Amino acid sequence: MTQQNTVVAQMRQLIQILAKHNHAYYVMDQPTIEDSEYDQLFHQLKALEAQYPEFVQPDTPTKTVGGKPLSKFANVTHAVPMLSLGNVFNEEDLYAFARRAEERLPNQKIEYDVELKFDGLAISLWYEHGVLVRGVTRGDGETGEDITQNVKTIRNLPKVLSSEKTAVPELLEVRGEVLMPKAGFEKLNAENEAKGEKTFANPRNAAAGSLRQLDPAIAASRPLAFYAYGIAQCEPPHGQNTMSASLEWLTQFGFAVGERHFICDNIQDVQAAYEQINTERPNLSVEIDGMVIKVNDLKQQQTLGFLSREPRWATAYKFPAVAALTTVENIDWQVGRTGTLTPVARLNPVAVGGVTVSNVTLHNIGEIHRLDVRIGDTVSVYRSGDVIPKVEKVWPEFRPEGAAEVHLPECCPVCSSPVVMPEGEALARCSGGLYCAAQRIEAIRHFVSRKAMDIEGLGDRWAESLLHLDLLKDVADIYSLHEHRDQLLTIEKMGEKSVQNLIDSIENSKKTTLAAFIYALGIRGVGETTARMLANTFQTFDAIRNADLDALKKTPDVGDITAEWIVDFFQAPHNLEVVDRLLAAGIHWDAPVAPTRQPLNGESWVVTGTLSTMGRDEATQQLQALGARVSGSVSSKTKCVVAGEKAGSKLDKAEKLGIPVMNEQQFLEFLQQY
Ligand code: IVH
């Protein structure tokens, strides 16, 4: 075996193992290995790729994000139109569908292929010589949008076709649906809620929103999955005779198909399969809104053909929507961990499709206005795909007299701080920050994190217990914990030694930097870099605290909105009180060294490979101290690439784009000048 063969074989093996685990994790939500093991395999592949960039495989999971953000999607005309399906809603309609098929296929036995009807977005995928070259949305059926970059980030979708048994077709157009599996959807919403970002009403919206992102990096961060349900073109022909066999044929190339699938000899069995799936629906990993019934034999399909825009050989058998009427008893505002206020309708409990629903999120004040829902209203509650109940409709005709319009509360229901809702934003927030009990745990976790005050152990292990003991009302209380040794010892697994370690760690954290302290306060929009820029620009804490909007806006890395958030933060008396107590507890720092010169002001640099005299973090800091922005990827805007040993694709790219490159020796000499 040549070296190339061995390396490629190793890469292919790692890609296959990673793809299998990705499927288990993202699609089935049943991880088969530990995250750390996955990371190890992933890094093994990355290392191999860095060493042999010339052999990097096109479908490597290390480069799911292929392209740059687009300004808009291009339109593509479908070679074979993407048509729609007729619907049936009950047994009688189903039998009528079967009768119409039978009449056109006299004396023929008809077998039915029964599939899940995925509730996502239809797309078409083109493979040329086994390589995924294009992904297009359904659009109006004739013309869709080119979403290739986003489609390439879908983890369970083969980007290169290979099969041990079958030759790869020269051209293959696969049709199917992009979805967000339920587990991924719930995780995404929980994460967004924790970050104070907008949540999605259902997996379909989340999938649609993700696919319509112009920046493929966003689509890549979303847990999307693709399920194949048909072949629009195949050259040379695949040679299968039935729908079910052609789907099976697709699976050998790694395409996922629905987790349930039936082949029925008669239409009664189709009805039974439909009923079975209707009860199993809550246990499926994806959202479905019915079943698709297809005549299984492909020749029979051809004979049946189409009636206007719908096939005669297939129909959708939809599940009945589950909805119920009830009344709104109250509307509460819940405060999330980052201070977002979410309205929740408290309902007179009602059974919807077998589940009792008593609380429904109304998402935000905009949704309340859109529905014009008021306390006392009669509403239709709808459970989309069995997961999230929602208020679908308000019945104003049943509105009790005098029911008042709902307004955003002026004060936080938890801490009474003013509620703010910046113009153009959908979400309202409590301005209480560090003071608000609802936001405390996150504020504490952030405050003690490594890049902030760096108090080891407190964030992950003890924060919740300390909150329960009521020892931490805000972050300033951390510095009085030493007065409560006895209570600390009552916490499970907290012995003398852990208490002492914690207290020592708290004491040591008092000596910090101005930038870390500013970052630790958890001001919205103020990440590590912004905090450093603020410290460098203003030099003292008082100067930052008293800075006006204009001065803040002029600071590098501080946008207009962040500037407003900084001002808001230092205007809230509760925050000032906490800050003063923190400073009184003895938090201190050396005055930041004013960067006398910022010779690399705003330039974009990239550090890649291994440097022998310093870590990449240190190299990054040195560059940042000179005013550079250090980026993770090379583009035409990159000013210079510092390439250590074993620099891989970034170095290649820099050379291709003609961007200056420094080796370690040159970099050290360059730094010496300053
Ligand atoms: S077959 C000629 N199979 O339903 C159309 N469609 O109402 C053949 N859909 O836009 C479509 N699951 O996106 C087919 N297993 C499945 C499906 C399915 C969901 C969607 C499809 C289409 C819509 C038609």
UniProtKB/TrEMBL annotation:
InterPro entries for the chain: BRCT_dom (IPR001357), BRCT_dom_sf (IPR036420), DisA/LigA_HHH (IPR041663), DNA_ligase (IPR001679), DNA_ligase_AS (IPR018239), DNA_ligase_CS (IPR033136), DNAligase_adenylation (IPR013839), DNAligase_N (IPR013840)
Catalytic activity: NAD(+) + (deoxyribonucleotide)n-3'-hydroxyl + 5'-phospho-(deoxyribonucleotide)m = (deoxyribonucleotide)n+m + AMP + beta-nicotinamide D-nucleotide
Cofactor: Mg(2+); Mn(2+)
Entry binding sites for Zn(2+): 412, 415, 436
Residues at the catalytic site: 117 (n6-amp-lysine intermediate)
A GO BP annotation: DNA repair
Keyword Transmembrane included in the entry's annotation: no
Top-level class of the enzyme under EC nomenclature: ligase
Family: Belongs to the NAD-dependent DNA ligase family. LigA subfamily.
NCBIfam families: dnlj (TIGR00575), PRK07956.1 (NF005932)
Protein name: DNA ligase
Lineage: Bacteria, Pseudomonadati, Pseudomonadota, Gammaproteobacteria, Moraxellales
